[in-house]
Amino acid sequence: MTFKLPLLATKEARSDDTPSVLALFGVQHPQSPTPLKRNLIAALKDKFALENGPGHIQIVLESQQPRNSSSNCNTTIFQAFWFSSTDYEAWWQSAAVSGFWNSLEEDAGIWREIMRISPQRFMHATGSTKKQGLALVPELADIDYADIEPKQKYWGIYRERIPDHEADDFESAFISQAQRKEMEEKEVKTIPDKKTVVLRGPPSPSDTSIDQIRLGRVVLSHGIDNMLYVWEFQDYSQMTEQEKEIWDKHINAFVRGWMDSLDKERSKHGVLSFRNTALTQIEDDLTSTSESRITSQIVFYLDLAAFEYSGKSTRDHFKARMAFEKHHKDSGALGMGKGRTQLSVEVGILKRSDFEAEYIGCLGGTGLMSYKELIDAA
Which ranges of the chain have pLDDT less than 70? Predict the structure, then answer.
């Protein structure tokens, strides 16, 4: 059996290593945004419509983040994509955009995380011809089907789909304390010789510091060398009744277990930041409608090695993958086009200068804000 997988291919004109840009802009607000927050979201939306604005925007909602049962904070996140970093810089440095950003108050509750994605250190794959993520940028919209033989479907295949994998090991200087400890307990033969760091989990309900706003600007002028960005996407909106029954009975429990583990046991997985989001639509009157059947996860890992170890050593992830393949193979109940669920993934390996971030008046634990000391020293 051959597994057909569409892989993103840049157009022939894109033969250089000029990066594309994926920019995440988030506005933190109560579950029902105040007029001030509505105006901030509207202003940001208007800025994307200016000259040299993004080729595509996707808006998602992150509920109760940073995670805390007592917090009434949601985040509206704009995923904005530029084919060319030159266009992004022209937009960002324009008077209208820079004036808006520089005028924000110290308690604004807004943040940005900017990634310059090299085509040599990037992979996008999808189980459907429908495009998502960076593939929606017009200049990157060509998707070719590639034949993936069964023998090639192994742990680490993401690495081999990334063009630069033969010339670069993609290793960061860090390994999480929990991941190292687990490797030692399992007597892994080759444990990476890296600096051990303690990664924070989501705050517990008793942690009141999460509800405290850090006034002013926290700026990260760079990232960690070889930090990994991962975006996972799930569209369940076209599910048939049979498909829903199979997912509920055989797949969903493992998927939820895997995602909960990534979020709650971040050090074990080498995760710096985890966001679970749902697609949202902002109407002209600024009302927002969330589509809970179209979800995605935005995750930053220490590096690709942490991501790979996490996937192959986590029971729920392994079971979710095996259950999905069992039911979606040609002879399965959802094979031969019967399954309508769309899954996509993209990964980008970020060199030190490929990442920057800024958090203005945000809650403690937002994004990579709490890792400023570690990142500044990297």
Answer: 1-17, 64-72, 140-156, 203-211, 284-288
For 159-186, b/e burial (b = at least 16 CB within 10 A) is bebbeebeeeebbbebbbebbbeebeee
Sign of CA dihedral 46, 368, 171, 271: negative
* Cα–Cα distance for residue pair 125/347, rounded to 1 Å: 9
Q: Give CA separation, 212 vs 70, 109, 196, in Å.
A: 12, 11, 29
pLDDT of residue 157: 80
- Give me the half-sphere count of Cα atoms (radius 13 Å) on the Cβ side of residue 257: 14
How far the first Cα of the chain sits from its last, in Å, is: 46
Tokens of 30: 């109560």
Q: How far apart are CA 48 and CA 24, in angstroms?
A: 12
Amino acid at 86: T
Show the domain range for 139.
Answer: 3-377
Question: What are 358's two structure tokens?
Answer: 């800024």
- What's phi and psi for 201, nearest 5 deg? -85, 175
Contacts of 342 (CB under 8 A, 6+ apart): 126, 127, 128, 130, 132, 233, 234, 235, 238
Give dist(CA 366, CA 359) in Å, integer: 8
Residue 221 and residue 362: Cα distance in Å, rounded? 17
SS3 346: strand
Pair 259, 276: CB distance under 8 Å: yes
pTM of the model: 0.92
CB 106 within 8 A of CB 361: yes
What tokens appear for 168 in the block? 């670069």
Domain total in the chain: 1
